[in-house]
Each structure stands twice: as C-alpha cells, then as structure tokens.
Amino acid sequence: MAHQSKFIFVTGGVLSSLGKGLASAAIGTLLECRGLTVTLQKLDPYINVDPGTMNPFQHGEVFVTDDGSETDLDLGHYERFTSAKLGRDNNFTTGKIYHSVITKERRGDYLGGTVQVIPHITDEIKNSILLAADGVDVVIVEIGGTIGDIESLPFLEAIRQFRADVGKDNVVYIHLTLVPYISTAGELKTKPTQHSVKELRSIGIQPDILLCRTDRYLSKEIKKKIGLFCNVGDDAVITAKDVDCIYEVPLVFHKEGLDAKIVELLHIWTRAPRLEPWEKLVETMETPKESVNIAIVGKYVDLTESYKSLNEALIHGGIPNNCKVDLIFVDSEKITGDNCGQMLADADGILVPGGFGSRGIEGKICAARFARENKVPYFGICLGMHIAVTEFARNVAGMENANSTEMDLSTPYPVIYLMLEWFDEKTGSIQKRDVDSDKGGTMRLGAYSCVLKEDTFAHRAYRTDQISERHRHRYEFNNEFRSRLEEKGLVISGTSPNGELVEITELKDHPWFLGCQFHPEFKSRPMSPHPLFRDFIGASFQHKKNR
Ligand code: GLN
User: Fold this and answer.
1) Residue 178 lies in a domain
2) Which of 9-18, 139-148, 436-445, 497-506 has the lowest mean pLDDT?
3) CA nearest 229: which of 257, 205, 199, 198?
4) What is the span of the domain harbouring residue 209?
5) Which of 382, 459, 473, 516 is flagged as catalytic?
6) Burial 279-291 (b: 16+ CB within 10 A, else e)
7) Residues 71 and 184 reside in one and the same domain
8) For 375, left (φ over 0), alpha (ψ -120 to 50), or beta?
9) What is the pTM of this model?
10) What is the pLDDT of residues 149-168, one digit of tens each?
11) Which of 24, 81, 208, 389 could cross-link to 142 by cystine, CB 3.0-4.6 Å?
C-alpha cells in the first residue's frame, strides 16, 4: 500500500492576524525535529487565482517559489521554518479551484451533470489537498480567513469530509483562537474562543487541539474551563503566547506539549524532537553584541508585511555577524537630491527592494547615488538593481536621462528595457514577451541559474561559480549599453549561463555595492542566512565602525 500521509488542518477563529501561518510553520518545525517529513499547504478563500496581481498594501508580499508560482506570503514562513520544497500545489485559492472546475465543465467532463459546490467544488478541494501530500509523513494545511466568513465555507466542508475519506486516525483539526486579557477585569477571557469553536462545530468540525493566542501563560484552571466548554481535553489546550522573536514559537509550542499531543492523536511513533539548533538560534538572536541600521528605501514603507521575506532575510543576515538589524523604512517619494543625505544620515547600509511602477523612482536614484558617492554599502534587489544601473548610467557614464522603459518609454538611454525574446533555460526554448500581453503572463518567474565572475562581491559571498535564484520581473538589463557601462567601471558579476541576461551588477572601489535581478530574500533561512544578506550586513557593520 502507498505510504499513508497524515493531515493536520489549521483553522483560525475570532479575528485575523493571530499568526496562523506562523503557527502552521512552527508545527512543521516540531514535526521535522521529530524526524518526520512534512509539507505545508495554504488554502486561500479569495477569488483571485493567485496573489500575483494583488496589491501588496492589501495582501502583503507575493512569495515566489522555485517553480515560479506566485503565492501567499505564508509559504515564506513555511519555507523558513521547514525544509519542505514548495510550489504550485502548495497554495490554492477559491479562484484557482473554480477555474479548474469550470474548465472541466466546459470540456464536458461532468457529462451534463449539474455542477455544484458540494460535491464538485469540495471534491476539487480534496484532490488539491492530496496533490500536496506526495509521500510525506504529515501534510499541514492552513485554511485562510476566519471561521464565520462566508468565503471559507467550501474549504471547511471539504476538510470536514476529508477525515471520513482518509480515516479518523489520519487527521487532526487544530483551531487557533484568541484569549484576551481584559485589564479592567484583571482576567483572561475565554468567551471568544467558546463562540468560535461553537461556530466551527456547527459546520461539523470538532477541533482536536486549541491554540490559544494570549499574552501570558494559561493556568490549569483556564485550560480546564476552555476544554470543558469546547469539548477538548485540557492537555489539548495550548498556550500560544506572544513572543519577541518568531523563531521562538516552536519552542513555546513544544513546552506546552503541542507536538506530543499531535503525534499521539495521529498515532505516529517518533523520537523526541531535537530542538537544540532552534534553542541556539533564538539565544544568539536575543543576545546580539552589536547593532546596525539598515535603511529600506521603498514605496510600501508603511506596511512591513509587503516586505516580509526581505525583513526576515535582513534579520538572518545579522545572525552570523552577531548583529541586531534595525530597519529604518524610508519613503522614497520624500527623498530629493537636497535632503537625501539628511534622510539617510542614520543608515549604515542602504537597500532598495523590488517594486513596480514609477512612483518614488527619482528618490531611489538619489539614494543609490548617495550610497555610491559616500561609500555606504548598497544592496539593490530587482528594481533596486535597475535603479543602481540607471544611476550609474546617468551620473558616471554621462547618459543623461537614462532610465528603465518601465518608467520612461522615450528615454534616450533605455539601460533597462523589456527584452522581447530570450532563451529560457526552464523550457529550453526561446521565450517571447510582448508589450501588450496580459499582466502577470510575461514575467520571468521562479528559479534561474546564474554564473558568477571571480573576484567580485558576489563570488566572495557565494563562494561558488554557479547559483540558482528566484525571479519575478519583466524588465532586464539592456545589452546594447553593456560594454559602454563596463568601460566606465560597472562590474557585471553574474549572468545567465549563456551570458545573455545580466543578473548581478556591482561597483569597484566601493566597500560593498551590488544589485541583483533576482530576489535572494526568498531563499534565506534562519539556519542558513543568505550569503548576500550576510555580507551586506557585514559590510554595513564595518561601515558603522569606520564612521
Ligand atoms: N518592476 C520591475 C520589473 O518588472 C522590477 C520588478 C521587481 O522588482 N520585482 O522588471
């Protein structure tokens, strides 16, 4: 018989933002530390087919996987907390489910039957869950949204049915709720949890474990009370206490007995979890010797959710440098040539992240110039590389009004432009891009290889000749200007294996100045900080000491 995967469904109650994604990821950590193989999946109730076209202000970051899927930012947590390899089957939305059902209906697959939410949509959801399983021991499935939402009902119905399909001992339902401390009453309140579980039970799901988000540990009495009202054992009521450092979440859950309870309910025999690496990590992160200020010059500055992986990667970069990384978000629309020095005065390093559209672009160019001229470490990611190249073209190579055609279609020096044809290593064929094609359809997405030039910042960081990194962009470095920019001192330290696509640019005679066409932040892990982030933070710290 094929290997029977076990399934954990994580739902959320009371309100959003309780950290369901982190909780799911932390469960993955604990099970991996027990020697099990895991994967994680997110089911999102919204109707967009994927978050690729969604505004980061509303939805937060779009996380890109190796296979080029544009996914929910929770997949970023999953990858940072576990070694699971995620891709298109790890994130489904209502839109993607319906799209597939409607496609089948048009093709005549339902043989004239009436297509309905139950069973057709719910079957499609259940099949999607099975797609993710792929032989692993445990699949952790997070349902987006909050219990009580209309949108998530088909997903909840599907996971309700799922237990009957695969057997009682193979499924655990975990519900995350809030247990607020009300200071006027001086006590923790359990009513929101009771109501949320009541709602869940009304649609036929009895949670097996409750994760109670709270600011203090729940006493035995409170756990007993919650257990009684919600029909779970008091050892299945787990305190999900607020923590300062997200990587502490698995440790808190473990102390509360969560992983022991899960394996008991799933009838899996495992060794005790080996949590030393996580304990050590948290200890290092909580006792940094030094600190460094990094200015993130961007557009989505008021919402840190839109740069989730970036923020984490910067924090990871601090770990090997024993440095706490303090982030200063600087709104690029407010930067001008005159106030730039003042606005970036506290920055030990400057980072221009990915972005779309022309808003705030001139401020970013000022920031890159400031970094170049004042020898402040600079890290440009995707759009941030475009900015660095544009700045260099304008102010070093004398190409007045040089620009990316994303910002200015009539620039005399389109140093960054839409490459209409290129060789795609993924498909082994020539890819064509057309200016008018669908939004989202023409991006270079996912993992691509890049060969590195020796004796460059990039090669010194990666310590290898070839790397693979994830992309999400349309515009590319324009080879027409390559030799002219190189003659003026721009270093091209990374290209696609056939040399056609410029992937990394650098400056000489600078402590650390690098722009990359890809998004290295997606591949940084707390246990293995990304080499570019490590070296950028290292250089920034050095800069701080020298100031
Ligand atoms: N807007 C730029 C492009 O489409 C950069 C994208 C990004 O930074 N991810 O190429």
Assistant:
1) yes
2) 436-445
3) 198
4) 6-281
5) 382
6) eebbeebeeeeee
7) yes
8) left
9) 0.93
10) 999 999 999 999 999 999 99
11) 24
* Share above pLDDT 90 across residues of the chain, in percent, rounded to a whole number: 87
Task: Please tell me whether residues 215 and 296 are part of one structural domain.
Answer: no
Q: What are the structure tokens assigned to 12, written together? A: 């959320």
Q: What is the CATH number of the domain that holds 221?
A: 3.40.50.300
- Ligand 1 atom with minimal separation from the 353 CA: 8
Is the same domain home to 53 and 167?
A: yes
Pocket test residue of 63, 359, 382 for ligand 1, highest count of atoms within 8 A of CB: 382
**Among residues 257, 281, 305, which one ends one of the domains?**
281
Helix and strand totals (H; E) in the chain: 18, 25
**Contact assessment for residue 82 and residue 29, using Cβ atoms and an 8 Å cutoff:** yes
pLDDT band at 436 (very low <50, low <70, confident <90, very high): low
Is 382 one of the annotated active-site residues of the chain? yes
- Closest among 328, 336, 330 to 300, alpha carbons compared: 330
Confidence of residue 431 (pLDDT cuts 50, 70, 90): confident
For the chain, the domain total comes to: 2
Q: Does the Cβ of 382 fall within 6 Å of ligand 1?
A: yes
Per-residue pLDDT tens for 379-400? 999 999 999 999 999 999 999 9
